[in-house]
Amino acid sequence: MRKNIFDNSQIWNWVDSNSHNTDRFEFTENLTPEDVTSLIDIGCGHGGFLKLISSRRGNIRYVGVDNSDGALEYIPFEKAKASITDVPYGDKEFDCVYALEVLEHLGPEDFNKARMEMSRLSKKYIIVSVPYNEDIQWNMVKCPSCQTIFHYDGHVQVFDEDKMEGLFKEHGFQCVSKERLGWSESFKFHKTYVSLFYPEQRFKAPHYTVCPVCNLELNPGDPGSRAAVAPPAVNNRKSVVSMLKNSVKALWPKEKKSYWIIALYKKR
Prior knowledge:
Elements: H1 9-17, H2 19-31, E1 38-42, H3 48-54, E2 61-66, H4 69-72, E3 78-81, E4 94-100, H5 108-121, E5 122-131, E6 140-142, E7 149-151, H6 161-165, E8 173-187, H7 190-197, E9 209-210, E10 217-218, H8 236-251, E11 254-267
Parallel strand pairs: 1-2, 1-4, 2-3, 4-5
Antiparallel strand pairs: 5-11, 6-7, 8-11, 9-10
């Protein structure tokens, strides 16, 4: 049986300590319409968003759904263990249905089923957040045991503004708001530079993931990834080289990117 990495409590400790996740939860809460009196968060994890919104809103029905027993242990609200493709609640039972960092994990068949299921459950609104325009090939890890190369978080879908706009159109929902968030700066052509000069670092650092072939659990700091490569010892010559590199970095053009895109849909 394949391990469920989301049973690992270290993941949720990392989520709680990451300010970007807190910002995302707060943005989602602010995006939630005021007339919502019942909501369901599908793929709720340890309930970070549910706990935040419940602390700021009044008498609302909060429901969390996830397929991880370990994650659901943290949920102090009504909850159910289920997949996003088959949620054990009734048609139009909730004012708002959420899928926060879930849809990017789904292959074509489950992706279509999930959109249909979310539309079935919603009486008024749907809110979705996903990684924005992700370069999936850049976020691969290599299993040190069986050498399988796979996405470190199991992402298979890529989203941009156009895809978000029409996500639930065929199910009777209109996109009324979409925003990008989680902004950061990076050096232009950085990926090309790493690929050309440091190919041994082309794989991403493991981040609480499980090899889909041999079931090996990989955690931050494991060998075989670009973040796990130790820096070389510094001598005088390398110090000069390092100073030159820092000077180049200060002048090198940068680009601003967002990590997430989040959208609100309203039933037509």
